[in-house]
Amino acid sequence: MAAARHRRGAGPIVDSKSAAVAELMLEVAQCFFRIRALGQKTGLITSWGGGAFGFMRSLALLGPLTVPQIAEMRPTSRQRMQRLADELAAEELVEFIDNPKHRRSKLVRLTPKGDARYRELNTRLLSIASTMGVALSEPDIRKTTEIVQHLSDGAKNRS
Hints:
Order of helices and strands: EEHHEHHEEHH
Oligomer: single chain
Structural class: mainly alpha
Helix content: 55-70%
Low-confidence stretches: none
Shape: globular
Radius of gyration: 20 Å
Number of strands: 5
Strand content: 5-15%
Strand order of the largest sheet: 3-5-4
Distance between the termini: 33 Å
């Protein structure tokens, strides 16, 4: 069992599963930075940052939402999402509409221009995705997605 459990410096005893999870976390982080660089190179991440596509995607998939609802779905502040909503509104990609459930908290929805931009960016993303992971099977990709989601949920619960 000595091979499965070992001590590194004054740190905790690490088993092979813990080491594997740590390695996965580091690989996901490295992958994120590479994907972000690719997004910047291909225009998926624009001057307003990577959050714009995700923000518009939420609205495209879920319909109108409040800024607090959008912020709750992300690891970021309501204030950051408000700035992003304002920036997207200035570009006429989203608009603020009355919320029948709450007078002061407006709903944000895609404009026709925003919907077209979202569809354009999504098509570009799918085009890039079609050239990546060609050696992987769809079930392996879906299982990996599930694993990364569990890892993400664990990190969210600890933050």
